[in-house]
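Page 42, continued from yesterday. The earlier attempt failed because a stray header line got pasted into the input along with the sequence. Redoing it now with the clean sequence only.
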Amino acid sequence: MNILVVGCGKVGSKLASQLSREGHDVSIVDREEKSFELLEDDFQGFKTSGIPIDQDVLKRAGIESCDALAAVSSDDNVNIMVSQLAHEIFQVPTVLARIYDPKREDVFSHFGLHTVCPTNLTVAAVRSAITEKEKPQVINIDCHTISFSTEELPKSLIGKNANEIMLDSHQSLYAIQHQDLSLTLYQGQKIILAAGDKVIISHIVD
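This time it went through. Structure tokens are written below.
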């Protein structure tokens, strides 16, 4: 793949170096040329210094032929503007942006852009490590990140219907995992919970 990375900080430099090592054609942009010193020695990609929101700079970096763009600078506003340019002007097939402020999620969703929010991901990971025994699974669907976690069934729910499980407003019951490891997807039907069952909960991270 031809991949353009915007921002050569700790995240951008590591991402670009890893993608390059995997054999992708990688180009990276940063306003400060000295930032490229963070790239690993085996980086084989193309480096462009300049203002990331400048269309000429993006063209020099190869945005017109890239398959995907990752805007991972430390500035949310830059990531928003670069993502818009990539999506609307240059028609880049896959655009992903890092945002620090969870409140800006609606801005990206409005433009149909996928985001990764370190704040939300960190909170979800720490919460899971504290409250859940099972490691959560995360998938990306369009511009959203969805986490799935498996939790033990409280004894108070044994023998009751699955619709009696109390969840937060941002959570949904996805499935019931039975003691024999079989799985029943929950679609609102009546499921009587049994000892040894586990519940799989889904919730939108960002």
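Notes: The radius of gyration is 21 Å.
Reminder to self: strip header lines before submitting.
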